[in-house]
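ok, trying the design again with the full structure, not the truncated one.
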């Protein structure tokens, strides 16, 4: 089959890399892709948010399957438009994508489905928001309801910070329209994990567990980012936690959506906090996590193309996927200054030497300039390895990173610290 992948980040590189292993895949095209993806797919410079351009590309290329990586295109209705044209699409409708596109909608669905989540209120007015913040006190969580590339959440440890964040969001200064509705939540304590599922109608197939590191700095401190590293499996996701997430969180949410006339095809990603009284939902995403996808694809043994095509056709078998036992770990290398301001256009070298040491370097925000690889975004590389145990995988990645020659590189030194705290 010919597969079209939409997106140009580390997640899409990992997806293309895995699709390229599949016996049933003859050709992969990727829009817009990136220089790393170009090693395994034909990249076409149509932006991942250019819905009309992507539709025209699909019509011209006639892929047998379209896989939509990023959330923005899904929220904008790309999957609906492609399905109307008769394409097999892996990715949810705009209506289903509201689970990620509107945190207020997501909370409403969780409430209706009876799913464990933090207490919350939705606010549009700063005076009402301030009153609630004073009533609940700190710590308290302030979230922009709309899409904010993983950066729209402030965990405020004092009331003044919470009020400033709420004001900043509601005024439209910080996230534009995405912030003019906010969700104010009670702050949950516990360990976080990412639980992803391939969903096609009633069929829900779990992916292996993983854990992301959303904070910028070591020890999970500093501002939230799109994700600074991830590994799989996450030991905190015991069988009992995994069963609870499937049966008490994901199944009821899919059923509730269906009752509202919103079927789901794609990845449902439950970000969970494992609290003392069990797992609670922090958020839903409607696509593979980035960077969780990178270690997950390294561990997946089943044929990715077959799974995604079956899901797209609503014929996904209700059978577990096959995974390598070896853990895998990804360290994200970002442009220093990310998630705020950073410089683009710096030369990046040393990737061949790194790969010779056993890692796979997934590209995210890279570009080519006159034959030289340069940084072109906030999160730039996902250096990923698997090994017989997690400590060895981590050692392999950090040893390879010593060979990276890029003066603006920033990465966390402690990816997987929670799983390895006893080592
Ligand atoms: P979200 O985009 O909603 O997952 O939020 C991003 C990150 O903020 C999460 O991965 C958590 O680390 C943190 N977070 C979100 N909601 C809460 C909450 N209610 N309590 C504690 N931490 C939270
Ligand atoms: N890694 C978190 C996300 O993809 O939203």
């Amino acid at each position: 089959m010919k597969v079209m992948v939409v997106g140009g980040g580390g997640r899409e590189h990992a997806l293309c890399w895995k699709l390229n292993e599949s016996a049933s895949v003859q050709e992969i095209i990727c829009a817009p892709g990136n220089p790393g993806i170009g090693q395994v797919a034909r990249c076409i410079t149509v932006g991942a948010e250019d819905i009309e351009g992507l539709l025209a590309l699909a019509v011209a290329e006639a892929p047998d399957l379209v896989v939509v990586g990023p959330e923005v295109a899904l929220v904008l209705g790309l999957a609906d438009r492609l399905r109307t044209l008769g394409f097999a699409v892996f990715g949810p409708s705009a209506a289903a994508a509201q689970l990620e596109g509107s945190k207020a909608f997501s909370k409403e669905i969780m409430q209706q489905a009876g799913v464990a989540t933090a207490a919350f209120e939705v606010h549009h007015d700063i005076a009402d928001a301030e009153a609630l913040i004073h009533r609940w006190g700190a710590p308290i969580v302030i979230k922009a309801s709309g899409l904010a590339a993983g950066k729209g959440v402030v965990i405020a440890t004092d009331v003044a910070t919470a009020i400033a964040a709420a004001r900043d969001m509601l005024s439209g200064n910080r996230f534009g329209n995405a912030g003019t509705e906010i969700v104010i939540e009670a702050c949950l304590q516990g360990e976080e994990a990412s639980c992803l599922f391939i969903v096609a109608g009633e069929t829900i197939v779990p992916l292996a567990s993983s854990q992301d590191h959303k904070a910028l700095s070591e020890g999970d401190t500093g501002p939230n980012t799109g994700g600074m590293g991830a590994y799989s499996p996450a030991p905190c996701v015991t069988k009992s936690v995994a069963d609870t997430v499937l049966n008490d969180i994901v199944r009821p949410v899919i059923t509730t959506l269906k009752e509202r006339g919103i079927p789901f095809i794609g990845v449902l990603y439950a970000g969970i906090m494992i609290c003392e009284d069990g797992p609670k939902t922090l958020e839903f995403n409607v696509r593979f996590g980035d960077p969780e996808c990178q270690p997950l694809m390294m561990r997946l043994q089943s044929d990715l193309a077959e799974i995604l095509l079956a899901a797209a056709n609503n014929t996904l078998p209700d059978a577990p996927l096959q995974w390598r036992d070896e853990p895998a770990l990804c360290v994200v290398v970002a442009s220093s200054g990310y998630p705020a301001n950073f410089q683009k256009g710096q030369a990046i070298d040393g990737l061949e030497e790194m790969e010779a040491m056993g890692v796979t370097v997934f590209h995210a925000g890279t570009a080519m300039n006159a034959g030289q690889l340069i940084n072109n975004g906030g999160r730039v590389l996902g250096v990923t390895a698997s090994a017989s145990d997690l400590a060895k995988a981590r050692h392999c990645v950090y040893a390879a990173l010593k060979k990276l020659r890029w003066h603006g590189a920033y990465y966390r030194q402690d990816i997987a610290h929670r799983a390895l705290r006893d080592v």
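Keeping the full-length input from now on. Residues 10 and 206 are 21 Å apart (CA to CA).
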